[in-house]
Design goal:
4-stranded parallel β-sheet; homodimer; 5-stranded mixed β-sheet; 418 residues; Rossmann fold
Chain lengths: 418, 418
Amino acid sequence: MDKRNALYAQSGGVTSVINATAAAVIETANKSKRINKVYAGKNGIVGILRENLIDTSLEDKAQLKKLIHTPGGAFGSCRHKLQDFDVNKREYQRLMDVFVAHNIGYFFYNGGGDSQDTTNKIAKITADLGFPVTCIGIPKTIDNDLPFTDNCPGFGSVAKYVSTSTREASLDVESMSETSTKVFILEVMGRHAGWIAASAGLAAEKKNDAPHIILFPEVAFNQKKFLNKVKLTVKTCGYCVIVVSEGAQDKDGKFLADSGSVDSFGHAQLGGVAPYIASLVSDQLGYKHHWSVSDYLQRSARHISSQVDLDQAYAVGEAAVKMALSGENAVMPIIIRKKTKQYGWEIGKAKLSEVANFEKKMPKTFITKDGFGITKSCKNYLSPLIQGEAYPPFKDGLPEIARLKKRMVKKKLKNFKV
Amino acid sequence: MDKRNALYAQSGGVTSVINATAAAVIETANKSKRINKVYAGKNGIVGILRENLIDTSLEDKAQLKKLIHTPGGAFGSCRHKLQDFDVNKREYQRLMDVFVAHNIGYFFYNGGGDSQDTTNKIAKITADLGFPVTCIGIPKTIDNDLPFTDNCPGFGSVAKYVSTSTREASLDVESMSETSTKVFILEVMGRHAGWIAASAGLAAEKKNDAPHIILFPEVAFNQKKFLNKVKLTVKTCGYCVIVVSEGAQDKDGKFLADSGSVDSFGHAQLGGVAPYIASLVSDQLGYKHHWSVSDYLQRSARHISSQVDLDQAYAVGEAAVKMALSGENAVMPIIIRKKTKQYGWEIGKAKLSEVANFEKKMPKTFITKDGFGITKSCKNYLSPLIQGEAYPPFKDGLPEIARLKKRMVKKKLKNFKV
């Protein structure tokens, strides 16, 4: 049998452990006698459309090993959603051309919901067009909003970063609160689901511990109720720590971050729900405050990744290749939580057709009645995901990272405009 | 000889390792037969004025040990500067009353430049008023702007956090840059000196590595030159990482953060030079960007503290007590860099009268000619300070922290309004 090549690509926002998945795909595929080379799309599917394929067999083994502790997307990612085949055949035909030209037999697409939709479409079309390619989706998203899987690789590490940072910064605010800063606001990611904001709640061990207020996208922001809670917290604890999801919104679904702030040129101020909340606290209550926007820091903080998350990120990559080799197609490995008292997990699978374009929000039972905190059952769900410190090696005081050569596979096709 | 008590207080902005200094003071004082108890001012000098003294002898030994890995100011800090004795005798007289009432023989004040000025005044006045108290300043400031000492405890850990985060986030931006984010802006602390911003420069190992642009308070912001550099960097590298000091200012000394942004109520937007730079990049160059404000996260990030910084923070606390016991007064232990090829340091001392109210800025030779980067000599200075990872112990996935009882010493004086 003709040995075919495998093609791996990263998609959408990256995580601190997505390269561990990449390492797993490469290592597992290299062990198989049925797979020839492993190529990687440079900057995701856009690179595949442009026939920009990285030949991972030309990388130093030592550097590939470092992928496990290198954040970001080592082969480049992209935000590019393929339209429906019926609407735009051009890009699908081009993918086919690339697959055929480079004898691709296995396609592994590492991304969130949108990407799984794409993977599913490609699986169907390669079969329809007579050059069947085994297409396996691999989950990844810090947003933790994919269905079927108990959690998403990438999320546990953000949760660990956010809960750790919340605990640390809270001690700082508390010590400053007598004469200075009384309110601290931390903005975290999560445009549509409050999983990341929720994870800050793990920082609290006992009553009155920070964070005192969490603002979820799932709970409509009520300014009066919020300000009352801030006031009461400062009165009771002497300080107040607020964690706000970038997706926090009012009852009409309007993001608080889009609240009409303008800069000195009269342009709308871009992003930043933390400064918005800060202004509110300052204007309405007069408290001195500090605010932080963690943005990319939270999802690239490989130095504080969770060991459980890292293990799972590796495991889904390994499982994806094994599934492909065992004849599965248009599926995605998922993480199944065992029904044991002590946390345990195993790899299962879901059909891509069912995964695609579905966002898993926080269940109502995970948010406290007042809408400002997380419940015990939420803590029970989140806590196992942040266990273990997967420290990267450090050199000269800084985390070591992989330095890839990214040698390109020779092009065989004409240029293509994406 | 009557055994007298020691009094320790924290002042100003806290650091991730100031409690290691506290632990050193308490442990070293407890070993001495000449010191009775160690008290701590609750919330710094304000607590001393209010006669709010914490009796550290009533704390669990196990919890005191945890101070070494607990960020923030465990006894509380404050921003309160004593006026000159000639202007306002009242507070000095009150301090004297508290010292006498509680038999204080040694006062250790752990803070930055302002605090050392205060310590010096107190030393002078206790002598003049006939109840001599040995007053030792202990350096602490993430701003790294105290004179005489080679560096300031607290700074090395922020430098490690900022350089690590810059390296990590840069990998993220790089992987997103083909179709999405091209510019990432990280705002760091340092209102008057660019030491913290400079430390981001350690993240770069070779040409074109991020950060590509550092904006220092020491270099007047030139918008045209800056935008040109951003454009050129995106052209060359595909993306651009900018680290901006909160103290970045224009040629007239006006902070960029105070650039006239107003919120939806027409009020001045509070803080945030990162969103200002982001708007500029977006409006003038049209690049998609992300920005982060690390704020308190950077100075409380005990999980990524530098071992060298932690060792030095402990050492200055220990040295302060030893200096007091050896008859020194109105001095501050400092860190002296040995003139060896390999980095080494030892403790020296400086007179408080010479330390007080002096801000050490970045030398010109530490900033590259174009004003956007750090030189080799700056790297040589900074690099040793971020060496070693002083990880705290983790429990249930989160860093363990000290839980103090903070039992108060019985008051003996009338109330005093601060």
